[in-house]
Design brief:
By secondary structure, the protein is an alpha/beta fold. It has eleven helices and twelve strands. A ten-stranded mixed beta sheet has the order 2-1-3-12-11-4-5-10-8-9, sandwiched between helices. It has a two-stranded antiparallel sheet with strand order 6-7. A hairpin with a 5-residue loop joins strand 6 and strand 7 (135-137). Helix 1 packs parallel to helix 11 (320-330), helix 5 crosses helix 6 and helix 7 runs parallel beside helix 8 (223-236). The longest helix is centred in the middle third of the chain and has 17 residues, at 143-159.
Length: 331
């Protein structure tokens, strides 16, 4: 029976991971949990938001389910999420965006996957002040990381019956950094003649996704663009409350919702648990618990079609735990 590292997270994280854990257990998944703290609680207790015991637990168990962690804006410690991905070599961020039944949206039949490079670009955090009145941030793009993430996207497309990979960049302006990424994407694409390949400039990609998302399948891109475009894609299918995610490396995998910790709603039993539950489903699929994963997906769709026991953002009045209860009842 595999042991999963469980990081409850900050803000609404503990409520959301509790709901996901209950659903996963009710589905009959053969897992045990090792709970460790990261984020604000860990900072208070250990003086660091990312204690070594968290990294050790994930390395030992090789799989983790994580609630959202709070990153202060403009001040304080740098992103724990970024530090976690870099420390564990979680180079691929996988964020699917798929239309679900019963969820209000401007679009129908959206089925996209954003593959985001996770370790470099502007998110490497190499920045400094230049005197008192200017700041400089250094954008790092390497051949190794670019080829690795594009190859991951093509391998994912092959494994999941996808038909096209689109590389997203700004090589018309950033000819060295994004130019290198695009050149690597074109080189790797030659190895996969069965999968269609194209590229789009990032601003045009945003326009295309709003106008005709049905034309796209797997999107692969550097770190910053991936963060932005994955939120855009979540908006196409109902919002961040239904957007799951995974961070994958050679050795370990960490699954987490795309959304943040929403501290103003902490303890109110209000926030939609679907993104965390669906991240748990991705985790179950990753460890081979496919039957339990399929049961949860079917139960989620039953609850959404009924449209009664859902949270406020989906037009209902149920709380976090009540929506989880409804999914468990539908299993």
């Amino acid at each position: 029976m595999p042991t999963i590292t469980l990081i409850p997270g900050d803000g609404t994280g503990p409520e959301l991971t509790s709901a996901a854990r209950r659903v996963i257990e009710a589905a009959g998944a053969a897992v045990t949990w090792e709970v460790v703290e990261a984020g604000e609680k860990a900072l208070e207790r250990y003086g660091t938001p990312l204690p070594e015991e968290v990294l050790a637990s994930i390395r030992r168990n090789r799989v983790a389910l994580k609630g959202p962690l709070t990153t202060p804006v403009g001040t304080g410690f740098r992103s724990v999420n970024v530090a976690l991905r870099q420390a564990l070599g979680l180079y691929a961020n996988l964020r699917p965006a798929r239309t679900l039944p019963g969820i209000p949206s401007r679009y129908q039949d959206v089925d996209l996957v954003v593959v985001r490079e996770n370790t470099e670009d502007l998110y490497a955090g190499i920045e400094h002040m230049v005197g008192e009145d200017a700041a400089e941030s250094i954008k790092i793009i390497t051949r190794r990381a670019s080829e690795r993430i594009v190859r991951f996207a093509f391998e994912y497309a092959l494994a999941h019956g996808r038909h096209k990979v689109t590389a997203v960049h700004k090589a018309n302006i950033m000819k060295c950094t994004d130019g290198l990424f695009l050149a690597c994407a074109r080189k790797v694409a030659e190895e996969y003649p069965a999968i269609a390949f194209e590229d789009r400039i990032v601003d045009n990609m945003c326009l295309q996704l709003v106008q005709k998302p049905e034309l796209y399948d797997v999107l692969v891109m550097p770190n910053l663009y991936g963060d932005i475009i994955s939120d855009l894609c979540a908006g196409l299918v109902g919002g961040l409350g239904v957007a799951p995610g995974a961070n994958l490396g050679e050795e370990v995998a960490v699954f987490e919702p795309v959304h943040g910790s929403a501290p103003k709603y902490a303890g109110q039993n209000k926030v939609n648990p679907l993104a965390t539950i669906l991240s748990g489903v991705m985790m179950l699929e990753h460890i081979g618990e496919t039957a339990a994963a399929a049961r949860i997906r079917r139960a989620v769709e039953r609850v959404l079609r009924a449209g009664k026991q859902v949270t406020y953002d989906l037009g209902g009045q149920a709380g976090t735990q009540e929506m989880a209860d409804a999914i468990i009842a539908a299993l």
